Amino acid sequence: MSTIEPTLPAGTVPHDMRAAVLDEHGLRIERIPVPAPQRDEALVRVTACGVCHSDLHVLKGEIGFPRPAVLGHEVSGTVVALGTGTTTEAVAVGDRVVGAFIMPCNACVECARGRDDLCLRFFGLNRVEGSLYDGTSRLARADGTRLAMYSMGGLAEYAVVPVSGLARVPDELDLASAAVLGCAVMTGFGAVRRGGGVRVGESVAVIGIGGVGTSIVQVARAVGAEPIIAVDVNTEKLDLAIELGAHAAVNARESDPVEAVRALGGDGVDVVFEALGSPRTFAQGLDMIRDGGRLVAVGLAATGQTAPVEITRLVRRSQRVIGSYGARTRTDLPEVVRLAASGAIDLDRVVTDSYGLDDLETAFAALTDGRIRGRGVVRLA
Ligand SMILES: [Zn+2]
Ligand SMILES: [Zn+2]
Questions:
Q1: Rounded to whole angstroms, what are the CA distances from 360 to 62, 150, 307?
Q2: Exposed/middle/buried for 374, CB within 10 Å: 0-12, 13-18, 19+?
Q3: Band of the pLDDT at 12, cuts 50, 70, 90?
Q4: In this structure, which topology does domain 2-183+327-379 adopt according to CATH?
Q5: For residue 182, how far is its CA from the centre of ligand 1 (angstroms)?
Q6: Between 291 and which of 20, 261, 317, 351 could a Cys-Cys bridge form, CB atoms 3.0 to 4.6 Å apart?
Q7: Closest ligand to 151 CA?
Q8: Which ligand is nearest to the Cα of residue 49, counting in written order?
Q9: Average model confidence (pLDDT) for the chain?
């Protein structure tokens, strides 16, 4: 059993911690044992965890996930221990790190091809069962009740994260704000650079300006897209998009967003990013792209949700519909951190709201109501 004994520096890690546990009664803060990392896993003292729509979908039961569970999949913090037998140059005890929501298993055929975003064990074990890659969870209540982990279960004071899902955060970045690099910004990066393959001078529209939408705007700006058109129903969010580099803003409450985007792009845009996951905005996105254009679907919808696509138009106009989920953690997360360190991703502007663990209900209510202007984070330290 020696391989599962963690190398915890004596006296630095408490026996138990506060965590947000979701069970049949809802979300509650509980004291549970601090998890122990196994081989190739790190124990991270969580500084902050982002508040994301994926958690909200699970919370509302729109996306299936076992309960009881600890949600939270966008974390930053400090490595306080590594599992015994871990050999990595990527992180060391004491490092400031960000954790990606896709934690590649390093062993499946997709990981071997570099497609961390398709990792079979991440989807099969973590997203279905709430486990890590030996098929068990690191989290449990003191009475032994298993707690499923949504990614690393980041809405807790400590989290076990496979080292494949971590990247170092340089000193110039605020560690709490850096949490959003692990889901929102990584998803925006994957959508622009991988899903959309956006090139210099291409016109872009972004539907839904939240954590992911603001990231898409910034990454699109960094690759030289022009114009970048932000679409939302919230004036404050649109103002933020302009501050972050969008060239134009369309308020879908005040004008027909399809007509407005088509006009601004000059008979449509090259790439539309749909970051809401709603059938209506998905259809609007299809109507916004020019001949030969791409619609990149980034927003998750409730399981089973569909949207119509006009077949002949898609065929005749050589349009493409592309799904994009996260990014390739091992190669893209370090790149996302570099982009932030270079200033191309302005984290101080993206992270607009901050909460304590006790304010979690307030945070998710604000997210539900669209009151978080950019991204909200829960501060755990
Ligand atoms: Zn997320
Ligand atoms: Zn894998």
A1: 19, 16, 32
A2: buried
A3: confident
A4: Quinone Oxidoreductase; Chain A, domain 1 (3.90.180)
A5: 8
A6: 317
A7: 1
A8: 1
A9: 95
Ligand 1 centroid – CA 55 distance (Å): 7
**Beta bridge partner(s), residue 313:** none
Q: How far is CA 335 from CA 167, 194, 207, 216, 329, in A?
A: 10, 13, 24, 15, 9
Right CATH number for 185-323 from 3.40.190.10, 3.40.50.300, 3.40.50.720, 2.102.30.10?
3.40.50.720
162 Cα: distance to centroid of ligand 2 (angstroms): 12
Please identify every residue whose CB atom is under 5 Å from ligand 1, which is an ion: 52, 54, 183
State mean pLDDT over 33-44: 97
- Give residue 304's pLDDT: 92
pLDDT at 370: 87
114 CA to centre of ligand 2 in angstroms = 9
Q: How far is the CA of 119 from the centre of ligand 2 (A)?
A: 4
Q: What pLDDT, on the 0 to 100 scale, is given for residue 7?
A: 52
Element of type H or E holding 284 = helix 279-288
From ligand 1's centre to the CA of 74, what distance in Å? 6
Q: Which ligand is nearest to the CA of 211?
A: 1
Domain range summary for the chain, segments of one domain joined by +: 2-183+327-379, 185-323
pLDDT one-digit tens code per residue, 102-115:
999 999 999 999 99
pLDDT, average across residues 122-139: 97
| SS3 state at 258 | helix
Residue 268 Cα to ligand 1 middle (Å): 29
Q: Can you give the three-state secondary structure of 186-200, one letter per residue?
A: HHHHHHHHHHCCCCC
Task: Using the mean position of ligand 2's atoms as its centre, give its distance from the Cα of residue 122 in Å.
Answer: 6
Ligand 2 centroid to residue 290 C-alpha, Å: 36
- Beta-ladder partners of 168: 97
pLDDT at 4: 46
Nearest ligand by distance to the CA of 55: 1
Of 4-8, 162-166, 205-209, 270-274, the one with minimum mean pLDDT is 4-8
Instruction: Say how many Å lie between the CA of residue 375 and the centre of ligand 1.
Output: 10
